[in-house]
Structures are given as C-alpha cells and as structure tokens.
Amino acid sequence: MPESSGSSETLLEIGEREILNRLKKYMDDGQIDNDTALIKNCKKDLIINTDLMVEKVHFSSRTMTPEDIGWKAITSNFSDLASSGLDKVLSVTIGLIAPPSTSWSWVNRLYKGMTNALEVYGGKLIGGDISKGNEKVISITAIGSQGPLDLHRSHAIPGDCLVTSGPHGLSRLGLALLLEDKVLETKHVSDELKAIAIESHQHPSAPIKALKSLINCKPTKIPWRAAGTDSSDGLLEAIKSICISSNCKAIIRTNNLPTHKDWPKGNHWDKWCLNGGEDYELVISLPLEWANEWIKIMPLSKIIGDVKQGSPEILWENGKEIDSKNYLDFEHFQNK
C-alpha cells in the first residue's frame, strides 16, 4: 500500500531536532522541552506496559498503511492494560527507530494513526525518542490507573470457567487475505467474514469496553477475584500463561471454540483460531455465576473451558493433551 502524496523529505534531510520539533503538534505545549515527562499523582496504583512493533515481524507496508500501523501500535498496548484491569489510560511515550531514508510523510501519518487511537481510548502523548536503524521499530510505553479488578494471571482457581471476550483467528485470516494466501483458494470465505478479518488485522480494537462490562456485571456476592490476560500472542498461549501462573490445568470444550459464525471448519482453521495471534481479546478465568452474567451483556463472549486442579497443562475435554506446538502460528523467536 503506497503512501499518499505528501512531503518527500527524508528523516536524514530533516535531522533529529527538526523531527522532534514537528512532532510537538501531537503533544501539549512544552511537553517534550525536557528529557523527562511529569505525571501528576493520580492517587491510584499505576499499571505500565511497554510493547514493540518491528517491521517485517509485526507490520509491513504491503498490508498496512502508516495510519494503520500507528493505530495498532497504540491499541495493542492498551489491550495489555485492559487485560490487567485498567481503569483509565493516562499517557503514552513513543520510541521510534527508522532508516534515514524514511520519508517524513510516513512518520507524520504514523503519528496521526496513534493520535486517532488516543482520541478514541484516551491518554496523552507525553514524550519519547527517535533514532536511526536498519528497520523501523516502534516502542510504546503506556501508563494507566488500576481499576477495582486486578486481573493477574495467578488468580485462577479450580472450578473457574475460561471465557473469551470475542472470536479468535480473525487477524490471522485478515493477514492471509491481504497477502492472497493460497490456502484460501480451497475454502469459501463470506464477504462479511473477509471484511471483519481485514479490519481486525489492520484496525484492531482494544478490549476496554469488554473489561468495563465485566466489571459492571459482577454479582454482588462474588469477590473481586479473576485471572486474565489478552490473546495478542494467541489463545493457547494466553490460556497456558494463566495455567502456569496459577498452577492449574485447563479443559477446553471441543465444540465451543470462539470463532465467527461464518468461520470455516477444518484443522487449519482451528489452528488459526487457537494460535493465530493478534486478536486482542480478553481471556478470563472467573466463577461460573459471573461468567454467565458477562455473556448476557457481551453476545460475542463465550465460555470455552474450565479450570481444574492439576499441573499446568491444556487438555481437550476427552482428556487428550493439547500440544501448543501442533497449533503454533504466532510466537516470537520461533523457528520458521
């Protein structure tokens, strides 16, 4: 996807000082005049997350515009905050590495995408850094305040249900569609599913609304206890992380995988659902009564399994172990 018309100046031609000067328009006056950013005490616990997006690993100009990349860089971080029990997004800092030949237009459009996400989800851009490198790398540090529900991965207990906030595999399908993957030639994919999948890959949503609904529907007699993470690295990886932190095992309901209503059948499609990655949905372990209330107000959410006592592992309900290596599709540093 080529860049739209705009400044043809490169970062090498502009220089670091002028780049930073131009980026000031995305921040409050005087925000980056110092080497540090002031965060006024909000009298609440803070949650902080840093995420990287690397060119040719997380994004490509072949499948995403600079605005898409900027949007996704922000929402992927906010997904992590939501999966920890976010109350409110406060601020973000941005680190950018780019080749000197990168056009100013690309950088400007990247920041526009980030600003668009901040306008939707809240938070202010308060600073960052920029340097040169061989590939584009975006590092976002996001800061938020902690809400009443501490969704730590270690809070799952036997008897809980495992619930996801929405369907999985959509981002992976979107990538395949954008790359015209030949595997799609043998399967009919509805126009509705195609559109949703591409949107999920290029313009994902952070699950903040899902978190708010989870908090608001908690039954009065149920304590503020639930475990959670997001599925940015794949559904199985999310479940595995909860099992390891909570020292328990998960039983997955074979016929209740969280897929779109038009999702095709088959092992390949199950693989994309289970470990396609970058779905940015909440994966929560919580009491059944609370889970049922959440499903009532979140129609796309689904109970996908149960937490049982035992060593950390993931099993199908027939007792067969789910080896995540057989479903591996998205993992950093995996052998291709």
Automatic annotation (TrEMBL):
Residue sites binding Mg(2+) 3 per the record: D35, D80, D230
EC number: 2.7.4.16
Residues bound to ATP: Y111, G128, D129, R153, S232
Record field: catalytic activity: thiamine phosphate + ATP = thiamine diphosphate + ADP
EC top class named in words: transferase
Binding site for Mg(2+) 4: D35, D80
UniProt keyword annotations, A-Z: ATP-binding, Kinase, Magnesium, Metal-binding, Nucleotide-binding, Thiamine biosynthesis, Transferase
Top-level taxon of origin: Bacteria
Pathway per the UniProt entry: Cofactor biosynthesis; thiamine diphosphate biosynthesis; thiamine diphosphate from thiamine phosphate: step 1/1
GO molecular function: ATP binding; magnesium ion binding; thiamine-phosphate kinase activity
Biological process annotations from GO: thiamine biosynthetic process; thiamine diphosphate biosynthetic process
Positions of transmembrane segments: none
Known role: Catalyzes the ATP-dependent phosphorylation of thiamine-monophosphate (TMP) to form thiamine-pyrophosphate (TPP), the active form of vitamin B1.
Note: Reaction mechanism of ThiL seems to utilize a direct, inline transfer of the gamma-phosphate of ATP to TMP rather than a phosphorylated enzyme intermediate.
UniProt cross-references to HAMAP family, sorted A to Z: TMP_kinase (MF_02128)
Name of the protein: Thiamine-monophosphate kinase
Organism: Prochlorococcus marinus (strain MIT 9211)
